[in-house]
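Notes to self after the call with IL:
- keep both proteins in one doc
- input above output, always
- annotate only the second one for now

Protein 1:
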Amino acid sequence: MQTLEHPQIHRIDLEEIHGETTMSIPETQLPRVVIIGGGFAGIEIIKKLAGKPVQTVLFDRHNYHTFQPLLYQVATAGLEPDSIAGPLRKLFKETPNFHFRYGLVTEIYPERNAIATSIGELRYDYLIIANGTKTNYFGNQKLAQLVFPIKQLHQALDLRSQLLQNLERALLVKNIDEQQSLMDIVIVGGGPTGVEVAGALGELKLHVLPKDYPELDFRQMDIHLIESGERLLGTMSEKSSKKAYKYLTERFQVHVWLNTRLEDYDGKEVTLSNGRKILSRTVVWAAGVTGNLIDGLPKEVITRGNRIIVNEFNQVKGFANIFAVGDISAIITEETPNGHPQLAPVAMQQGRLLGDNLLRMLDKKPMKPFKYFDKGSMATVGRNRAVVEMPGFQFQGLFAWFVWLFVHLLYIIGFRSKLVVLMNWMWNYFTYDRATRLIVRPFVKEKMEV
């Protein structure tokens, strides 16, 4: 199988690169691999390159890796934020020829193998784009200012503060409609994130909040889940969708609105496509993501969802030394016309293979094409309830819930984090309590860019 020929390795001269000295990246005769993004894919690549004859430079706008599948538990007071986040420097502190820089990559210059960042410019021999996705507001600037996404750690903390602050305010108001708007919550998007948020909030409503706020009548608190499609968990089987719907509506008293869209929201009142209006000060946005593109790549390599078109080796279309992996990449084939699913297992598998392929390129050996091993998908729907689908079989209920717990615990990075998460889960399970109901930084909504 033919591949694009890799470029002649550029021997880096700090004197000729404007701005490079501000980063204090040591001069080296080794090929320099620059990775944008410390997510699942980026971490797996660094692990593969550790101890090999390359210099690895990682850029990220945060100094930590976040286990995103559990962000909703931080938002609903189930976990501490540091239990699902680990410092990148600590993770690779003993990795030779590795450098982390805390900064934002703003543009790529393929013609001269360089990137512009918030802390200067840097040249690369190989560039790997692994910065994932961002929340998709579908161009609605108004919504971006009013709703609550859950893609980053600070967003989960903002939502947690919003929920608790609203309940504190609900104690003080006399107007019933005003109190209702402070207590009711609307979740937009019936995928795994939306379903898991709804289930977690249902648990809070039934088991935790009535003890904290005995003055409030939580029978009046409504949780609404809005889904534009005909069923929940659209990427999973119809059986799993029906089970998730049953768990949410019967066990957790969530109002599920299918074939319904959010038409408008002014910060106080939600208007749905079916004409219904809901008073709510909290709208959780789980309606989709879009690629977190960086300027500099030609438009013809960008496809649906702002994903970057790559070949079977994750090389960006038309470039030998630029790669894209994880959620932002799309390998377009007959089997995957829209690319692979934007899941952590895909990113991790691509990262591992690309790390190996980079070493093969340097040894002038042919690269191996990516083949996704589908381990299945899953979603939890609150205590003792989950849906799991694996190749050849599927199951729901208590056993699925234990499988979900085990798999997520397995993929959390760091022994301490695994232990902390496990202890929190055990405490929550046996006491029906959430230990992190803290307003550590009162939330004030800031303007956001779409």
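Protein 2 (the one to annotate):
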Amino acid sequence: MEAILPGWERDPRRVLAETRMTPMQVVAIGVCVLLNALDGFDVLSISFASPGIAREWGIERGALGVVLSMELIGMAGGSVLLGQVADRIGRKATTLLCLVVMALGMLATTQVGSIGALAATRLVTGLGIGGMLATTNALVAEYASDKARGAAVAIMAAGYPVGGIAGGAIASSLLAHGDWRQVFWLGFGMTALCLPLVPLLLPEPVSALLHNRRGDTLAAVNRTLARLGHDPVSGLPPVEPDAPRAHIAELFARGMAPVTLLLTAAYFLHILTFYFILKWTPKIVVDMGFTPAAAGGVLVWANVGGLLGGLVFSALSLRFGLRGLLIAFMLASTVMITAFGQGQADLHGLSLAAAAGGFCTNGAVVGIYALVAASFPTTIRGGGTGFVIGVGRGGAALSPILGGVLFQSGLTLGPVAAVMACGSLLAAAALLALPHRAAAGH
């Protein structure tokens, strides 16, 4: 029988939450940042490759928009389904599963010979990416101390554009000397290299172990504490009989429905704008007469801006209210994406405009991730994060399709960008309606 803590002994969850973070906690969070960077490259790989695919197979913009959306549809499903799985079987096992799915999807993409096969492999890859986003968000929130949690989640989210910068720089070089399939070989190799890091450096979080008590939970908790650099505990806190279960219905019970729905709406609407610049920039730049390698370079600058925006948002969130910062970044996003659509005379101007758009859009994404991670209790954090990201990813899936339809209708870049920028404006309105408990506490 498990030893139960007497009233005077500290809950092991509080050991992590209330004491100074150890180097091993920082390392574990760093691995999550790396995994999110891997997600960032995997998502953008199809964007880097899209000009070469369109040229080789003669795809029009409307059809290309559908292909660009397939992994985003997979990400939506992966976030919802695998976020629930993470709450049930554990964060560590789910993270490994997501990496395997991503690696197999990337490998399969190198072998496709038709639009249908390409769409299928991107859908599969998206399942893994979506699950990874939900799981790493929960992992970082549970490894970090209370004081550092918001900044840690924001830094994790800022890792996303790092993958676009590093992977994109390599991809641009590959595209200058080879074909688009080499981008996916690169993604497969980087994903495979990350697989051993999970068992080596990511212990199952204490809070997840206490929620899913099975076998010798005390020993498992103490193994995690030891790996994170903390002393063991002699017993476990009692089970909380009224704690929410790892079930999707709990996201709409106990007063959580407004928080769940408004965060999902805000994410859906803002991500519609965010993915317009990420998915369409290479094709837009190529259509202006520049090379695919140059187009990849412009997208890298969008990610450089995104990285800076995420880091600046993270720093500002330590001093200012999160909701106000989010609204400010979303309003700036509306302005900068509209400005990006006004067109630039050369690559330098395009790169600056893309960087400014990335700064504002990704800064707001980082803020939403931090708010989502803090808004749900541990028992439903993976599922809640997965639901918001998964359903919200409908905006990501819709973004390339809507952009393609608008272009196909004959609209030029300026009006299309103005329409797509409105997503951030409407997202800011959703945040204004967020209940005070969620908005003020994080």
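Annotation: The chain has one domain: 12-440. The chain has a mean pLDDT of 82.
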